[in-house]
Amino acid sequence: MAEGITGVSTSSSTCATLECQDLTKTYYSTDPPTQVLNGIDLTVEAGEFLVVMGASGSGKSTLLYNISGMDRATSGRVFLQGRDLTSLNDTEMSQVRLTQMGFIFQQSYFLGNLNIRDNILLPALKAAPHRRDAAIGRVDALMERFGIVNVKRHGTTEVSGGQLQRASISRALASEPAVLFADEPTGALNSSMSAEVMDALTDVHAGGTTIVMVTHDPACAARGDRVIYLRDGQLIDSRELGTWTADQAAEREDALLAWLRELGF
């Protein structure tokens, strides 16, 4: 079994934020059917920054979509803080995503008719409509934390890509989620903006938030506590990195790159 990977158990781990057991995903619309995930067992501990890597088509994003309930697995079970998500109906799963999960994608998916602050605030108000004042205070504090207060009244086309992704992080945290999912959050950014976004995510993680991030970029992956590697829908290896520090960034990235090359990345 790969280092750092928890095997199948009969119930969810009591200390885990997220756990999946024997997770599979098969698309039957193709002939023959395409199996994208093949028996994934994975545990993400509370406060962990887990990074998912692999070649294109390895199943990275599919894994993220299935453990977050954005897509339904063909078989297997997923637990969030001990709750079996695979037993929920679509309405129940939508509520879990709204109130207990945060999402960051390569694109921001903001509403063009709202300014930056209102885009961040909208999901928080929807998640807790009777706690409007608390949501507003939390959103304003997040915008201050990530240095985007000065663009709060700007439209989505009036800010930089880095500012937009920091706004996405603020939106994802506004409902105080149990876990933050990030799918290639720096994929559309240049190196300077990528570092800006990863600094923000590192700060989020240091505050205790559990993060699961998919990336193809070793420099971004080196920020995580642990990196898992997928190939053909299977989890084939895992590497513990420990806590990231700026003075060890180059050393961590070099070590990670060497490991990835051994795996054929």
Fold and architecture overview:
The protein is globular. 42% of the residues are buried. The chain has a single domain (16-262), classed as P-loop containing nucleotide triphosphate hydrolases (Rossmann fold, 3-Layer(aba) Sandwich), CATH 3.40.50. Strand 4 and strand 5 form a beta hairpin. The longest helix has 16 residues, at 191-206. It has a six-stranded mixed beta sheet, with helices on both faces. A four-stranded antiparallel beta sheet has the order 2-1-4-5, covered by helices on one side. The chain is α/β, with parallel strands linked by helices and 265 residues long. The protein has helices at residues 60-67, 90-100, 116-127, 132-145, 161-173, 191-206, 218-221, 249-262, and strands at 16-27, 34-45, 49-54, 75-80, 83-84, 101-104, 179-183, 210-214, 226-231, 234-240. The protein has eight helices and ten strands. Helix 3 packs parallel to helix 5 and helix 5 runs parallel beside helix 6 (191-206). Residues 1-13 have low confidence and may be disordered.
